[in-house]
């Protein structure tokens, strides 16, 4: 039985060649400028070129809604050369208490305000953060097409969309929907079975995996099920002398849809460990063992 690797080579994403692991800024807000810069420098040192944020990130900090984007904008103001080194993705469409708005008026404003916070004139990827059930996909498509034509967004992606919602949006767009962003980890397996990975592969879309460590549950397993999954990951980690997190990222990347894990740690030392994820090799039997242990049953 032959071993196979996770995606070790760079991947094409939104028209750019990027690292196969991204760094996310969900918990980026609230840091001082020096610490913020240290995190970004650590990500670059680890080979990361794809950086993911959103306008809502930081809403649970004193800075409030938009503060993660604003902090990144402050970093760019201090060191403008960093912006040109990264492929930058952000998201919008969530409003606390609403909860979603993808109307033309709101999305147009959200994109412009994000760019202002980020102190940039464009982002390489802009994603609708959650599907708004009260906005027609044609209205959304027209708004995003205008932003794309104006050069504000280089490419369009969706986050937490179903394949059908994605196809409906794509039908009205003259440019492709280039990416999905959904939860995927050894503890959250939905994209394997709900059609998202199938659509990603069929349409040549990239897939960004949020919470690849199971929302932190794999770091500190609290139940028998999670401990059983973690034990298999630990065995692989021990085999290659890497962390459990690195083994988990490698498991995620082994799927042929070439998922891009979004690493969420804000600790520079842990960010620098990202390259460990490229070491482990998985056999089919080992990869499926993690899957079936997580499912709690064997595949037929």
Structure classification: alpha/beta
Number of self-contained structural domains = 1
Individual helix count: 12
How far is the first residue's CA from the last residue's CA?
A: 21 Å
CATH class: Alpha Beta
CATH fold description: TIM Barrel
Strand content: 5-15%
The whole-number mean of residue pLDDT values reads: 95
Q: Order the strands across the largest sheet as they lie in space.
A: 3-4-5-6-7-8-9-10
Question: Which series of helices and strands comes N to C?
Answer: EEEHEHHEHEHEHEHHEHHEHH
**Principal-axes shape call:** globular
User: What's the architecture in CATH terms?
Assistant: Alpha-Beta Barrel
Largest sheet: 8 strands, parallel, barrel
Domain NADP-dependent oxidoreductase: 21-286
Protein name: Putative oxidoreductase
GO molecular function, one term: oxidoreductase activity
For the structure shown, list the relevant keywords.
alpha/beta; Putative oxidoreductase; 300 residues; NAD(P)_OxRdtase_dom_sf; oxidoreductase activity; 41% helix; TIM Barrel; 12 helices; AKR
């Amino acid at each position: 039985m032959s071993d196979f690797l996770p995606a070790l080579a760079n991947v094409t994403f939104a028209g750019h060649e990027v690292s196969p692991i991204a760094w996310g800024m969900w918990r980026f807000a609230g840091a001082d400028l020096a610490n913020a810069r240290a995190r970004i420098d650590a990500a670059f040192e680890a080979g990361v070129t794809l950086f993911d944020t959103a306008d809502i990130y930081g809403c649970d900090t004193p800075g409030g809604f938009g503060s993660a984007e604003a902090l990144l904008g402050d970093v760019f103001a201090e060191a403008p050369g960093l912006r040109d080194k990264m492929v930058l993705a952000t998201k919008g469409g969530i409003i606390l208490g609403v909860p979603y708005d993808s109307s033309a008026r709101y999305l147009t404003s959200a994109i412009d305000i994000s760019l202002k916070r980020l102190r940039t004139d464009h982002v390489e990827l802009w994603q609708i953060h959650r599907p708004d059930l009260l906005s027609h996909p044609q209205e959304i498509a027209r708004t995003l097409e205008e932003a794309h034509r104006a050069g504000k967004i280089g490419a369009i992606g969706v986050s937490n969309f179903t394949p059908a919602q994605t196809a409906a949006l794509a039908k009205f767009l003259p440019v492709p929907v280039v990416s999905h962003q959904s939860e995927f980890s050894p503890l959250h397996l939905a994209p394997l079975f709900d059609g998202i990975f199938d659509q990603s592969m069929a349409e040549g879309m990239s897939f960004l995996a949020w919470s690849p460590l199971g929302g932190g549950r794999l770091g500190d397993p609290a139940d028998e099920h999670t401990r059983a999954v973690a034990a298999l990951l630990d065995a692989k980690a021990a085999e290659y002398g890497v962390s459990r997190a690195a083994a988990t990222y490698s498991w995620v990347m082994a799927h042929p849809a070439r998922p891009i894990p979004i690493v969420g740690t804000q600790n520079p030392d842990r960010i620098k460990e990202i390259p460990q994820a490229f070491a482990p090799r998985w056999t089919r039997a080992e990869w499926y063992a993690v899957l079936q242990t997580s499912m709690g049953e064997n595949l037929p």
